[in-house]
């Protein structure tokens, strides 16, 4: 959910090598494989040649080439303008991408042979004569490889949204797929086909977006392979790989999309919008959520835009659906209590369930757009008498003015009897302000007052969460980690006589129950 944490320093966004994504179901895995070409056709129909920036690195680093996966020609035409005497064979998986290449103003059949081909199952020789190019198949030729590397920021975002197909292989929100390569995997892949590595390098660049006060860590892998046993070797006779993993060049990506050296790191023109407002709520989808005694229709960001949106509060996360079902099955958890939800996002399903039994509910988030959609969702799903019991407020974690305003809503200003949060522990930088905020707002008169967190572990481990909670004066009363409960405590009683757990059996969900 949108955390709304306040960060006085520039935000660092990077991938964690210890995170593990949730796998998509076998049905969707097979569908993404079966319809892969169709998804890429739809991608190029929507974006044409505007999504990827023109790539200028080939003429600087490799010279003559043979291109596989040409896309919409963002590499081809900058190259042939630099080298007027070369002929380019360019293929892509998507026929629509090839059509865009042929419609380009600089396309000339005598300079470019563009064709569609699935190189995993079709023969390139149907469109290219054997031994007719300077790279890839000819003796002394080279395979030039450049793609996403393990640890790239985009991988982290896909990982956190449960869009993993297999190890390092992910599906984006629009159905297209991406693989994030490691040095070892790429070298093994080529060596099994008789190639040896001539050079391999993992680049890491920090791209700064000053308008959004973000620093984004981008990783990509670049390699040159040759047929046969030749290649660079280390002193022990093993092939040596050159790595640039510690490179920390900073490039500025301005919101104005001005031309800059950021072109050299192969960023799409829309990448910075991943952390801006590249979404369209006019085309929002409506998701039906059912829990015991409740049937909600929730308006939310469409799936195709979710992987390019900064605002996590515009999406509905699995832990919120899980907690919604838990609360619906166990009304006694919140009955008659003053309830606060932190980082509720735009769906508000837990707050809406709570409104049916609680004294009143304050639903909060740090993002104004998420709160606007939350108001729309609550108004369309609750009867007027329940709608009066929900107060929707902005709460930037750690912000003194927001904290004061929200605390004053707790009847006598003494705090809330129960605070809930779902998927609010995904950001390491947000853990401290989360617990500091919760400690400021939890009731200081009710010894039974509780903080309940439900989450899927991502970049923050359990020990980090617990140590920060203890430092803020919370004590762990009960925990339910990945569906495992060590004793018959408070949380395990919530699952007696219902099938909530079985409904979410594929998710690695956890619940922590704190008191002060």
From TrEMBL:
CDD domains: AdoMet_MTases (cd02440). It comes from Oryza nivara. One of its GO terms (biological process) is methylation. The keyword Metal-binding does not apply. Belongs to the methyltransferase superfamily. METL family. GO terms for molecular function: RNA methyltransferase activity; S-adenosylmethionine-dependent methyltransferase activity. Residues 232-263 are annotated as: Disordered. Residues 67-140 form the Methyltransferase type domain. Keywords: Methyltransferase, Transferase. This is Methyltransferase type 12 domain-containing protein. It comes from the Eukaryota.
């Amino acid at each position: 959910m949108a955390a709304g944490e306040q960060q006085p320093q520039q935000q660092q966004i990077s991938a964690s090598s210890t995170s593990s994504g949730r796998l998509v179901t076998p049905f969707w895995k097979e569908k993404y494989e079966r319809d892969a070409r169709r998804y890429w056709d739809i991608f190029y129909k929507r974006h044409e040649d505007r999504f990827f920036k023109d790539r200028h690195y080939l003429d600087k680093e490799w010279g003559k080439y043979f291109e596989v996966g040409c896309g919409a020609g963002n590499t081809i035409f900058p190259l042939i303008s630099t080298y007027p005497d070369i002929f380019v064979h360019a293929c892509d998986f998507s026929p629509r991408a090839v059509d865009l290449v042929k419609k380009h103003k600089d396309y000339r059949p005598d300079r470019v042979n563009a064709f569609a081909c699935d190189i995993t199952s079709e023969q390139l020789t149907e469109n290219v004569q054997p031994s007719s190019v300077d790279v890839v198949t000819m003796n002394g030729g080279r395979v030039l490889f450049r793609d996403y590397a393990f640890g790239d920021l985009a991988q982290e975002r896909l990982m956190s949204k449960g869009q993993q197909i297999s190890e390092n292989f992910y599906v984006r929100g629009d159905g297209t797929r991406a693989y994030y390569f490691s040095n070892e995997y790429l070298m093994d892949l080529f060596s099994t086909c008789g190639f040896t590595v001539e050079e391999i390098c993992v680049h890491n660049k920090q791209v700064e977006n000053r308008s959004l006060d973000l620093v984004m860590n981008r990783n990509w892998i670049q390699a040159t392979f040759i047929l046969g046993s030749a290649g660079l070797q280390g002193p022990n006779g093993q092939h040596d790989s050159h790595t640039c993993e510690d490179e920390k060049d900073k490039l500025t990506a301005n919101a104005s999309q001005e031309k800059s050296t950021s072109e050299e790191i192969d960023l799409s023109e829309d990448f910075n919008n991943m952390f801006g407002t590249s979404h369209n709520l006019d085309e929002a989808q409506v998701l039906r959520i059912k829990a015991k005694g409740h049937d909600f229709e929730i308006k939310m960001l469409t799936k195709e835009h979710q992987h390019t949106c900064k605002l996590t509060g515009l999406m509905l996360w699995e832990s919120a659906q899980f907690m919604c079902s838990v609360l619906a099955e166990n009304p006694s958890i919140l009955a008659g209590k003053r309830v606060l939800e932190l980082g509720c996002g735009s769906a508000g399903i837990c707050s809406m369930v709570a409104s049916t039994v609680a004294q009143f509910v304050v639903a909060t988030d740090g993002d104004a757009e998420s709160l606007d959609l939350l108001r729309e969702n609550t108004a369309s799903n609750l009867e007027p008498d329940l709608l009066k019991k929900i107060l929707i407020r902005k709460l930037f974690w750690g912000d003194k003015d927001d904290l004061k305003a929200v605390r004053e809503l707790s009847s006598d200003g003494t705090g809330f009897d129960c605070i809930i949060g779902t998927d609010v522990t995904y950001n390491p930088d947000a853990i401290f302000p989360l617990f500091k905020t919760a400690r400021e707002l939890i009731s200081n008169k009710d010894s039974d007052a509780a903080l309940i967190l439900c989450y899927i572990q991502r970049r923050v481990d359990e020990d980090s969460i617990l140590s920060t909670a203890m430092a803020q004066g919370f004590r762990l009363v009960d925990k339910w980690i990945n569906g495992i409960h060590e004793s018959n405590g408070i949380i395990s009683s919530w699952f007696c006589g219902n099938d909530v757990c079985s409904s979410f059996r594929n998710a690695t969900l956890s619940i922590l129950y704190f008191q002060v």
